[in-house]
Amino acid sequence: MPFAVPNLPHAEIHVWRLPWSTDAAEAAPFRTLLAAYAGPDAPEVARGEHGKPHFPGAAGMLGFSWSHSQDTALFAVGRGPVGFEVGVDVERVRPRARAIELARRFFAPDETAWLQGLGDVHVLGAFLALWTAKEAVLKAHGGGLSYGLHRVAFAPDGSYLAPRSFDGDVGPAEAWRVAQVPLEAGLVGSVAWRGEPRSVRVFTFPL
Question: Is residue 7 in some structural domain?
């Protein structure tokens, strides 16, 4: 019996949480979810200039992305105009003694200054929130880390990271929406898409 997924309105982004290991067979749930959302008439997945997977032609109204960290993976999907862009990233929380050093190397100067102004207990969570937000945007855009994390800059706005300045063809920043994925303690995830505000719904893939 085909795997059934919830209805996906244009006003929603769906994010699925899945288990993950280094076994190649663990990619099977991604294929199952993608096939369930795309339907039986979907064309073969194509690859963009930098390797980003997408559906060609009219099927490109369905955007999708996935990410994994240690034992957990996320799969994000949404519908929009042809070429709809969505990206997701997840990181497992673990000690990063060099978080500020990495921020100086990869983040915008204002972001690094913000992190340095936080108490030690808050630096790691804020660093990972920034990292996953940046990666989610760059995965949606298709440029990946090689595009440059510093070219996608955010500004803290209470508990939210607001897109501030996106450089090059990933911009403008105001065209993007970025949301933190609600996950259990020990995981930080972000999902990003270009377009209007949407609600994010999180599901768990059945084992």
Answer: no
**How many Å separate Cα 64 from the centre of its chain?**
10
How many CB atoms neighbour CB 5 within 10 A? 16
CB under 8 Å, gap of 24 or more: what pairs does 57-61 form? 57/82, 58/82, 60/84
Three-state SS at 48: coil
CB 20 within 8 Å of CB 70:
yes
**Tokens 């949480």, located at residue:** 17
45 belongs to a structural domain: yes
CATH number of the structural domain spanning residue 105: 3.90.470.20
Band (15; pLDDT cuts 50, 70, 90): very high
**Counting beta carbons within 10 angstroms of the beta carbon of residue 144, is it exposed (0 to 12), middle (13 to 18) or buried (19 or more)?**
middle
In percent, how much of the chain has pLDDT > 70? 96
Degrees to nearest 5, angle at CA 183 with 77 and 84: 15
The structural domain count of the chain equals 1
Residue 62 has a pLDDT of 97
Contact in structure between 41 and 61 (CB atoms under 8 Å): no
Is 16 within the bounds of a domain?
yes
For residues 200 and 191, give the distance between their C-alpha atoms in angstroms, rounded to a whole number.
9
- Domain that residue 28 falls in: 12-204
Q: What is the pLDDT of residue 23?
A: 66
Residue 82 has pLDDT above 90, yes or no: yes
**Alpha carbons 27 and 68: distance in angstroms, whole number:** 10
